[in-house]
Specification:
Elements: H1 3-7, H2 9-15, H3 17-24, H4 31-38, E1 46-50, H5 58-64, E2 68-73, H6 76-85, E3 90-93, E4 105-110, H7 119-131, E5 133-143, E6 148-154, E7 157-163, H8 166-175, E8 178-187, E9 193-200
Parallel strand pairs: 1-2, 1-4, 2-3, 4-5
Antiparallel strand pairs: 5-9, 6-7, 8-9
Length: 202
């Protein structure tokens, strides 16, 4: 698969942040999953949104429900939009692959961001998830339904995606202290997303 398209993900979202935001911000198809995620988090708990984009609709949903959000994204224009929209929350330009905040959170989410990483980078992310998780913390991310790579398009450019096999994600949960709560492959109620929800045993 094309290594160049994998390396260009950050640049793509930097250059097309405004267009992506306009397309994405008013969609709420993932609400049922967000509610399941929040059900595992203490009231007014702290959430780390990894690959937060421009903050809508996901971070916005958490803020509306009185959770504290720290959002990180490698696209500086996306973070700038977040800071304008939700100045009371914390936003940081950062590459998730090298994330080290020296803090722990009650929930970690990487929705439609984690699956842009190569498979090796996805494997390495589980140590980062573990590093930032309080005991009992919820973890939710989207992946592909099976092992492989795929190239989509956005604004006429290649858009890289990758996924591990379900059994490998489960092995990584075990290795890093998480237990699987729920997984649905290509959920028809959530725009065909494949979603993983887990909890850190601590």
């Amino acid at each position: 698969m094309d290594d160049i398209s994998a390396k260009n993900i950050i640049s793509l979202y930097q250059r097309h942040a405004d267009i992506w935001d306009k397309l994405r911000k008013d969609q709420r198809f993932e609400q049922a999953w967000l509610d399941s995620f929040l059900s595992l988090i203490p009231s007014e708990g702290r959430i780390l949104d990894i690959g937060c984009g421009a903050g809508k609709p996901i971070a916005e949903y958490f803020v509306e429900r009185h959770f504290s959000v720290t959002g990180v994204d490698a696209s500086e224009p996306m973070i700038s939009i977040c800071r304008e929209r939700f100045p009371e929350q914390r936003w940081q330009v950062a590459d998730m692959r090298s994330l080290s905040l020296n803090e722990k959170f009650d929930g970690l989410i990487a929705w439609d961001s984690f699956f842009h990483l190569t498979r090796d980078d996805q494997r390495a992310m589980f140590a980062i998830f573990e590093q930032h998780a309080n005991p009992g913390a919820a973890l939710m991310f989207t992946s592909g339904p099976g092992n492989g790579e795929a190239i989509g398009t956005f604004e006429g450019e290649d858009l890289y995606h990758a996924s591990l096999a379900p059994e490998e994600y489960r092995a990584l949960f075990d290795a890093h202290g998480f237990r699987e709560v729920k997984m649905v492959a290509e959920d028809p109620t959530c725009a065909g997303h494949t979603i993983w929800l887990a909890q850190f045993k601590g």
